[in-house]
Amino acid sequence: MHRLFSIAVLLLAGLARAAETNAPPALTLDDCLAEAVRKQPDVAAAREAVQRSEFQYKAALTAFLPQLSASASASRSGGSANGVTDNNFVTSLQAQESLYTGGRDTALLAQRSAERELSRAVLATALAQLSYDVRVAFVRQLYGADLITLSGAIVTRRSGNVDLVSLRFDGGREHKGSLLRMQAILSQAKFEVQSAGRAFAVAQQRLAVALGRPEPVPAVQGKLEDAPLEAAPDFEQLADAVPVVRQALAQAKAAREGVRVAKSEYLPSINANASVSRSDDVFFPQENSWSVGVSLNYPFFPGGRNIMNVRSAQSDEKRSALLARSQWQQALLNLKQAFADWQDAHEKLRVQREFLQAAELRAEISRNQYAIGLLSFDNWDIIENDLITQQRAELAARRDVILAQIAWEKARGASLLPQK
User: Which of the listed residues 225, 364, 378, 414 has the most CB atoms within 10 Å of its CB?
Assistant: First the structure.
């Protein structure tokens, strides 16, 4: 019976790894990222926002170019007094150039540049979040498959332990309580296989959600391998480049330029204009005329609206500057915490591997000692349980160090997805 269950466990592990020939191909991490970025609406919306900001920036540049227009008119007039009917045809070409707007055009261009940087930072944030979500879900599915395999191996070992104790019990060298305990431990191991299978199904669905799929992802291809730990970076310099900080700084810059835009209402505007035209009573007009001029406009009292606009813009500038400072401080804290967590996870994995190595050697020795009667059941049971505990802990530590690395990269705003 125990052998049949072990075979079933191996088949379950095979399903988790998509070993069957009729199963769809397992997805790599690159496959998952490529699929997610195609289906993620937040990223698509952020990219459209970048395009929109580019167009608005180029629109602001047009304020520095001359404005040209052409017009044509035709009219016919007459009266009953003399019975004469007059025709009038006019064509004209006008040009206007803004010479001075109180700095409004320059400030507006700088404001649009800041908004362009803001949209790019928003896109970087969306890509970093999506990369994080997909990678975490991918790692958890890998871990779920490995946990099924490990749980199956534990069932096989527990089954062998039951057989060993049964032989000693049949020979009168072990009591009934030890045999019942081994059987109960085997039942627990079988339960943990079933639990691992259910957890794997949840992990499959979690990855499906990250990819925007309605159905679970059958299998993924990869290993729980951690990257080497980096040297401690310059956290303050990294904090400047975090996308959320870039967003806040861009908003602060836009608000600062908004003050200049508002203050331009205090100053006059100067425009140069020129026109050439032709008029006649027949088409095409032949009589030429032209004009060149400069105009000045100074709205010295628009009802106090300009004063309120400046004060509102100044308040927004202060608010944005405070928020940018707060975002920078929070980003600095997040970076230091994420890097410390990654360091801790690396150290924990190294120590856990030492514990596992020791537990494997102790279990090998104690099993032989118990088989020949040199070790009591209680001591052997403790060593066997410690081996299983260390095996599970080592697998969890491998998962956690990768998750800590992913969290560190997210704190930096790094992404495995292309910006364009």
Answer: 414
